[in-house]
Amino acid sequence: MRQNGNAQLGPGKPGRPAFPLSRRGIIGVSAIGAMLIAAAITAISVMGGGPGTSARQTAAAGTSQSATAGHDGANSASATLMPELAAAPQVAVMPKGAAGHSNTPKASSSAKPSSSASAHPTPSSSSSSPAPSNSPTSSPPPSNGSCTHPQLVTSDPNGMLSESPYFVAQDMWNASGYSVTQTLYACSYSNWYVVATMNNDSGDGAVKTYPNAHMDFDSSPTINSFNTISSSFAESGGGSGIYEYAYDIWLNGIATSGSTEVMIWNDNHGQSPGGSYQETVSIDGRSYQVYSSGSYIAFVATSNYTSGTVNLLEFFKWLMSKGMIPSNTTMGQVDYGIELVSTNNAPETFSVNNFSVSTS
User: Fold this and answer.
1) Could you tell me which of 268, 267, 240 has the C-alpha nearest to residue 353?
2) Rounded to 5 degrees, what are φ and ψ at 209?
3) Does the residue 105 lie in any domain?
4) In this model, does residue 334 exceed pLDDT 70?
5) Quick one: average pLDDT of 340-357?
6) Helix or strand (DSSP H, E) at 316
7) 61 and 123 both lie in a single domain
């Protein structure tokens, strides 16, 4: 019909009007005009043209692309459409010089090789107000009795509270490959707790996590430059399972090839240290069994205690006297926390109610 109409409306023979004035011609012109207008409107609508519509359609297209990019994670459009996600800061990074934790058990019935040394994460920045991650919303967090209003609640394996030079870290360094859940509730570096669930069904005795508070010595001062190095702590909680509360101290760097890891276990529940037994010594008024393997050394208290002030300098001087560390040894990091192997598949709460490091 459209072609017939066009033939009738095209240029006529010489002397013939281009648009006949008959009633049929007028009706035909009107009908074809209406069809052309309708077709134009439809084309504009489909192509996104026309005033007042392009902005909404563009925004809708952008929203759709942003959602797709955010979901896929590998779409190159994500950096353009969602820069706030692409540039989001990490909760924590590994300390300088550390390649990360190995999957070798930190402490087990077998000797701990020096290559299994693993540092505890420290953020590169000193932000004191990290955003909570995975915070429970349906109910308030459990309380350990003193930390009732935590400023950080996180189940992120690398979750951390920064109060430089102190930090509190989830440190779920060896949880991969095991059934482990752990949530950190931190009011401060000296008042925090974790609720953890894990097991030792594999029977390998592997430490899965070491939630801890720690202090960094960024300038790496020598031990001999101090008159005193001491630390106070208090802990509570735990129950069935395999774990120990302990200091984990890094000397001559933090998990570098030349660093030494010194542990002081104050409260042991079924755990066995790495390395081989050396001797039993009395240091700082308490008795400890000494175990070592390469650059790993552990002092295991013969009687558990849950609070006190530990003269760390005495331990270092004893190690120097035995030739186990050189006289020019430097301080790297002092950690205090809980090495967790198992809670017998039941949630258990482990609390640190005091922690500080004093030097002069």
Assistant:
1) 267
2) -140, 160
3) no
4) yes
5) 98
6) helix 312-321
7) no
